[in-house]
Amino acid sequence: MATAKRDLTDPKVQGRAHAETRLPRLLTVEEAAAVLRVTPEYVTRRLVFEKRLAYVKVGRQVLFEEKVLADFIAERTVTPSAYGAETTHANGHRSARPRRNGKRRN
């Protein structure tokens, strides 16, 4: 049995091919700053120049994938546990509850 060739001019085939190679949505510095609720200067000076956040550079323009920003937020999300217990961060590190009046509790 011979297999039929795919007609690449067929809109149905083009739509499926496009769906298979879907490109990520890219955000500008201003849009990324709005998502993170920081200033665009913070994004460029702290996150881009210090290479804390992956980015795409097209000419002079710096762009960020939505997934990179979502991962950045997820990595820094703190999930509190029961009151008085240690706090577990998304990266697995733990931090104790802050002391009151500088005194240790037993």
Explain the overall architecture.
The structure is a single chain. By secondary structure, this protein is of the alpha+beta class. It has a domain of 72 residues. It is built from four helices and six strands; from the N terminus they run αβααββαβββ. The protein has a three-stranded antiparallel beta sheet. A three-stranded antiparallel beta sheet has the order 4-5-6, with no helix packed on it. A hairpin with a 7-residue loop joins β4 and β5. α2 packs across α3. The radius of gyration is 23 Å and the shape is flat. It starts with 10 loop residues before the first helix and ends in an 11-residue tail after the last strand. The mean pLDDT is 79.
Nutshell version of this structure?
This protein has 106 residues and is of the alpha+beta class. The chain has a domain at 24-95.
Helix content: 25-40%
Q: Please, how many helices?
A: 4
Radius of gyration: 23 Å
Major β-sheet profile: 3 strands, antiparallel
| Average pLDDT score | 79
In percent, how much strand structure appears in the residues? Answer: 15-25%
H-E string: HEHHEEHEEE
Task: Give the overall silhouette.
Answer: flat
Structural class: alpha+beta
Taking strands numbered 1, 2, ... along the chain, how are they ordered across the largest sheet? 1-3-2
Distance between the termini: 79 Å
Low-confidence segments: none
Give the number of DSSP strands: 6
